[in-house]
Amino acid sequence: MQDTCYTCDELAVSREHVPPKCFFPERLRSNLVTVPSCDAHNSKNSLDVEYVRNVISTQHGSNDAAAEVFEATKRSLDRSPKLRARTFRDLRPIAIEREETGAYPVDLERHKRVMGAVAHALYFHDYGRKHRGGWQVFTPSFSYAATVHGGQPDPWANFRQLLESGHYTPMPVPHPEVFRYEMLEMEEGQMMFRFVFYDRVVVNAWTHFQTFVHRASVGL
Length: 220
Prior knowledge:
Radius of gyration: 18 Å
Mean pLDDT: 88
Number of helices: 7
Largest sheet: 5 strands, antiparallel
Strand content: 15-25%
Low-confidence stretches: 209-220
């Protein structure tokens, strides 16, 4: 019997890399995790994947693997002035640890779509079944704009601390300098992933929302 897609019931026509292959330098594209995928959940999201790869690989403080991927990012931006303009719209200079860099707004809907797809694929890979539902996504490594540019308090500070305090189980990966992840199983069959890209960008994706929002709001 032919496999069906990792996230829907359409027949699989390819293997989706998790995370997408373009996140990896060419020298680190061996033994990658793959899952069966239909076309809609693989090649048809390529523009979102390219955008998110570009954003993550340009984050300040990333490692040498990100610097390698950044070469592909530059080619991507050179090919498409419109993509470059959308990616770095409202770019403003800022200083981090006395080093000048820049800050720009991120299209969170595109980011969440890609990270939700990664979560779906890893859930299928690790549990051998599909997650029938959506994913909540929060990226602690992305700063709150009013804090960066205006010095206002971060309304998500408690939530960031809560997510960081979880006792996650590390999972085996082929190239942790590019991507590694951990899992946290919770009550009532719910679970959370913690992704780390290039030793810098942390993304949380989980299957249940209300409990975490309530705990964060009361400062637990």
